[in-house]
Design goal:
Strand content: under 5%
Number of helices: 23
Shape: globular
Order of helices and strands: HHHHHHHHHHHHHHHHHHHHHHH
Mean pLDDT: 87
Oligomer: single chain
Helix content: over 70%
Distance between the termini: 49 Å
Length: 446
């Protein structure tokens, strides 16, 4: 067996031994209360070792059952209760499905080609627009990796390997999928806090815009500094399209963006869901049919197929949550929060944000699952919604230095460079953004 296997088995064995010690202890003793937190640490350790998230959660859940002497009936009921909670966050599912369909219809590719044609040889503006496209596409779909898979190859073809463009895309992805009205992460925040996704998104939008502006500036300045030039011509499919045809193909993307971002404001002003999920789903699907080469059947199928990613992830998180809930039943989060309460309140939120960032680096493949571990502590401490959002952003930033994150893998593949090079290039810019986030959290998050 490999060292990794021995390490995994060692972590599991130590955890199980401690679980049986706790089971034999009185629930009011100090040792029992301390050991209730061990399943969380075991899950984190296994995630760091790149064990499948559900396997890690199962191990932690079994430990929680042993520690708390939880019956099979209770465990089964928890399992069946937690999964539906995640599958009921309908708006993010709809937004993600529709945005993915727009992707497949070529809306974002057309937008990039239009900008390239329009600005001539001013490549720095293309670099900036690539980051804007990454931010908007991720914000609308909620899927950073999915956006990067489409946009990174286009960016590589346009400007080549520019570390600042890659870093800008990473920053934009991190702040977009953690505050998106269509993302798994926003759904998790909503489920755990009991606050609607729309309210969370509105609260975090100013900070999303600030960090997106930084990401755009990083890419723009990087292109100028390196004297970047265009790397290749357009693909054969798009070369034959004139400006009018390209504009036509971008219409679904523009409409969806307006509906998602401005919809709540318009609906409130008119007193009716004129730009609600039903309307913009139907209209966007119709626009894909009218403005792209997709048939009506293909347009509808693209929307349905586009829901596959987020539905799969929601099921995973629901199962993960069920095991975390068993751990919570033993009072693990109360024990942790009782310790954290001793920290001065002025630095409590920044410390929580920093912890989220540090956890995200080694285990960035599982941002949603990490939130399930980190956010209950913030909620127990009655952190305001904006502070919960900062912690979520912190985990997102950490994931953009992770070698196992899907967005990072997509950037590595799209730009044809090792993922270690992506992480190394991102590091100074991500750390700079984290420093700013910690400052904001210090002044705003309390």
């Amino acid at each position: 067996m490999s060292r990794r296997t021995y390490g995994i088995l060692g972590v599991i064995c130590v955890g199980m031994i401690l679980a049986f010690i706790a089971m034999a202890s009185d629930k009011e003793t100090y040792i029992f209360k301390v050991i209730t937190t061990v399943p969380l640490l075991v899950i984190l350790a296994l995630l760091f070792m790149r064990v499948n998230m559900l396997v890690a959660a199962l191990v932690g859940g079994i430990m929680a059952v042993i520690i708390g002497k939880i019956g099979l009936g209770t465990a089964n009921q928890t399992f069946l209760t937690e999964i539906p909670k995640m599958l009921t966050i309908i708006v993010p599912i709809i937004n993600s499905a529709v945005a993915t369909a727009v992707f497949r219809a070529g809306g974002y590719t057309s937008a990039l080609i239009l900008v390239r044609r329009g600005i001539g040889e001013r490549v720095a503006f293309v670099g900036a627009f690539i980051v804007i496209l990454q931010a908007l596409a991720t914000y609308m779909s909620g899927i950073g990796g999915g956006s990067a898979m489409v946009i990174a190859p286009l960016a590589f073809a346009a400007v080549g390997v520019v570390p600042e463009v890659i870093a800008g895309m990473s920053i934009a992805a991190a702040v977009s999928f953690t505050t998106s009205p269509a993302s798994l992460e926003s759904g998790i925040v909503s489920t755990m806090t009991g606050i609607p996704v729309a309210e969370y998104v509105t609260t975090m939008r100013p900070y999303w815009l600030v960090f997106c502006a930084i990401a755009i500036a990083v890419a723009f300045i990087g292109c100028i500094k390196r004297g970047t030039v265009f790397q290749s011509e357009e693909s054969e499919e798009y070369k034959s399209l004139n400006t009018g045809e390209l504009v036509k193909r971008t219409i679904p993307a523009v409409f969806l963006l307006v509906a998602v971002v401005a919809g709540p404001i318009v609906n409130k002003a008119l007193g009716a869901p004129v730009l609600g999920p039903l309307v913009y789903t139907v209209v966007t699907t119709a626009l894909i049919f009218l403005c792209s080469k997709f048939t009506l059947d293909q347009s509808v199928d693209a929307v349905i197929d586009g829901s596959t990613y987020i539905l799969t992830r929601l099921l995973q998180v629901g199962m993960f949550f069920s095991f975390i809930a068993l751990i919570g039943n033993n009072g693990a989060f109360e024990v942790i929060t009782s310790v954290v309460r001793d920290v001065p309140i002025s630095i409590m939120v920044p410390i929580a944000v920093l912890c989220g960032f540090l956890i995200g680096i080694p285990a960035g493949a599982y941002v949603g699952m990490l939130l399930a571990l980190v956010l209950p502590i913030a909620i127990e401490l009655n952190f305001p919604l904006v502070a919960v959002g900062f912690i979520t952003m912190g985990v997102g930033f950490g994931s953009q230095m992770s070698l196992v994150n899907i967005t990072m893998m997509a950037l590595s593949s799209g730009f044809k460079i090792p993922i270690t090079r992506v992480a190394k290039g991102n590091t100074p810019y991500i750390i700079g953004c984290m420093a700013l986030l910690l400052i904001i959290a210090f002044f705003v998050g309390v």
